[in-house]
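[Discussion] Sanity-checking designs against the backbone

I'm trying to build intuition for which residues belong where. Below is a structure token string of 280 positions. I'd appreciate it if someone posts a full sequence so I can compare it with mine line by line.
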């Protein structure tokens, strides 16, 4: 799960390295990821069942909206707002999985909510790498909700032990690609050929940042509670803005950094104390 989080963190810098329109970036990334997943996950090579089909909309929201939000706002805002996934896991876990959060998790939930608010309070000044921060922030938040549902769904599928999580990811990417392409005209986006850097970024995103990372999530999820998994994956928001700064010189607003630090710090502390409690 930790290694998967490290690969996920490549998203912000690499997505901004593409010249493709946002929905084309999402579709191409999903297409490459689908091919890779069918190759490396034998259990994904079958038609999705009813349970897997139920998760496909959430998976599309988590992946496609994250790509589009990264193209519109800063990488820091996009990843910090998507990282509100633990909040949705804690709120919806008792209803969907009957996994109640512990008292300590409630403090993490509060910190995430405050951090999310700080991100939205930051001035939404446009820049070359973040042309529409306000819309991008809202899309990132919906992506976080979708990601939380995906984590809950993986936990649910993992309990059945029949490989449906792998099926969901592979087919989610395969179905998500044409859907993203089909949405392009609705948002006045046209297909472009892209340059060598854009195609290289897409290949790395599809093979490593999506396919290999999610393959590791699938392997780990049956053995890790949904809340704990979402906490471990917080390595992604810790690394993502740093890589975007190194590659693109992107400097998020101080309020975004403060909100992100609060989110990452709270979930890291929650993860640490959770492991201490289990060890005791």
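Best answer:
Here's mine. Compare freely.
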């Amino acid at each position: 799960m930790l290694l998967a989080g490290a690969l996920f963190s490549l998203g912000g810098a690499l997505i901004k390295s593409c010249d493709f329109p946002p929905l084309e970036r999402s579709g191409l990334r999903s297409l490459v990821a689908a091919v890779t997943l069918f190759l490396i996950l034998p259990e994904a090579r079958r038609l999705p069942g009813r349970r897997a089909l139920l998760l496909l909309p959430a998976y599309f929201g988590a992946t496609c909206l994250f790509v589009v939000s990264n193209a519109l706002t800063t990488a820091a805002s996009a990843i910090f707002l998507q990282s509100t996934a633990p909040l949705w896991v804690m709120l919806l876990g008792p209803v969907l999985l009957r996994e109640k959060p512990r008292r300590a998790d409630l403090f993490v939930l509060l910190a995430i909510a405050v951090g999310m608010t700080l991100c939205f309070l930051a001035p939404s000044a446009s820049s070359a790498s973040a042309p529409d921060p306000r819309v991008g922030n809202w899309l990132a938040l919906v992506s976080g909700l979708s990601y939380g549902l995906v984590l809950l769904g993986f936990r649910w599928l993992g309990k059945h032990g029949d490989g449906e999580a792998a099926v969901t990811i592979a087919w989610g990417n395969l179905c998500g690609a044409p859907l993203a392409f089909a949405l392009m005209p609705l948002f006045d986006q046209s297909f472009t050929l892209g340059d060598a850097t854009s195609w290289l970024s897409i290949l790395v995103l599809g093979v490593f940042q999506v396919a290999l990372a999610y393959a590791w999530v699938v392997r780990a999820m049956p053995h890790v509670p949904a809340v704990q998994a979402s906490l471990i994956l917080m390595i992604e928001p810790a690394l993502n803005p740093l890589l975007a700064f190194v590659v693109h010189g992107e400097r998020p607003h101080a309020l975004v950094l403060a909100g992100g630090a609060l989110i990452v710090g709270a979930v890291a502390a929650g993860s640490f104390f959770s492991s201490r409690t289990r060890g005791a």
